[in-house]
Structure prediction request, 528 residues.
Amino acid sequence: MAESYDAVIVGAGPNGLVAANMLADAGWSVVVLEATEHPGGAVRSAADHPAPGYTADLFSAFYPLAAASSVLQAMRLEEHGLRWVHAPAVLAHVFDDGRSALLSRDLDQTAASVDSFAAGDGEAWRRWVSLWSEVEQPVLDALLHPFPPVRPALSIARRLGAARLLRLARTAALPARRFAREEFRGEGAAMLIAGNAMHTDLGPDSAGSALYGLLLAMLGQQHGVPVPVGGSGRLTVAVVSRLRARGGVLRCSAPVTSVVLGSAAVEGVVLGSGERVRAQRAVLADVPAPHLYRSMVGEHHLSARLRCDLDRFDWDHATVKVNWATSAPVPWRSAEASRAGTVHLGGGLDDLSRAATDLTTGTLPARPFVLLGQMTTTDPSRSPAGTESVWAYAHLPRGRRSTEEVEAFAATIEAEVERHAPGFRDTVVARSVQSSADLEAADPSLDGGAINGGTAALHQQLVLRPTPGLGRPDTPFAGLFLAGSSAHPGGGVHGACGANAARAALLRARVGPRVYDSTVGAAQRHLS
Prediction:
């Protein structure tokens, strides 16, 4: 007889684990089925990697959205051993002339840094921090809760009034380059915004990149960019511990191959072994939307419109990541970079635009934007005293790459570090390279090395994510919910995609499947 639970969660990434916790909190019996040997998805670390005594974060590492997420805060993960720690400074963007723009939790330090590039920019930065402080909570509520965010939008409107609200809406649509030209005079503040925007797949000239750059910069300014003490995997350990304390079940090495659709609602899933697991109330899938619909539901169950929309699903760029164990701190020419947890490399604004254009045109960037993390600087437990556990990644166009191409691109990343930290190569004790294929093999949701579950561009956001009309966790199939980062609000470790799916499943149970499916469900079927 098949095992039976109120809810089956497909995928033990952070969104799946958050959804499972929320349903367990509501008294549901829950099982999480993870395809790989380890829970956590892209929130995992490895001890003794790439050398004995060093701890490497294999995927994500810094968590500004987790620090601000009301979903994760409500879980009280500190009761399950999670501890956060911050680097002395949040972020440094290093220029070719050796100067750095510094983002610090100390507003005076940030303002002084950007003011050193152009007098008056410090005061302009303070004005944006003041505005962000005014609207932070409703903005985060709007971003991290189901669409449409009616209450948060009304709250923002009340706080700002019509005139300021319209100007903020315009800012949200601006490219980072245009925003920087309008608000600042120097390169320092501009690169703090543009560099943060490049954490997505948006370049400085992409519409909406100002919004992402501002969001991450302001979160770093107000909350910092913390990391879990001991490695990113400690966050996963805490979430799993909380789930098990509430009776939830986690099964690893249990790949789901198909979702069982009944005449009235989803009935459960089938594993690769052929085993069936029944879902009495809901199935929540923390997997990319194309994987869910095409592989697990099956093309023959999809409408022609939905198949067409999935053909147009836009992934974000591929990624190559390099991990180093070094015998000494990174020998930066910039003193500011030595204090920062995160360091941005790759030149000035025009250089970032060239790299973004290369990616758009399918060209391997000659000089990529490099995002680097100094983990021991941030968390001294990551390696022996006087050493550094450090990583860097850069994006490249999607597609298969030979071992030689991957190694050459990794060498380009390393050369960018050496450019700003002469002698860096001499400190390297050990090194490992994670290609896009390696990333996907370790976490199948990182399709082709895409780390955000789909593009962050405006054409695939809000009600358009993952496809037009499917901007909520509901799917065209009753009782089946999309809980991964292909759903609104997208990539990042915040748990919101999973939380939104759990809320939808709970609402369906509360109002009754017949009422819910005849309203929300019918609308989803029509739109898809």
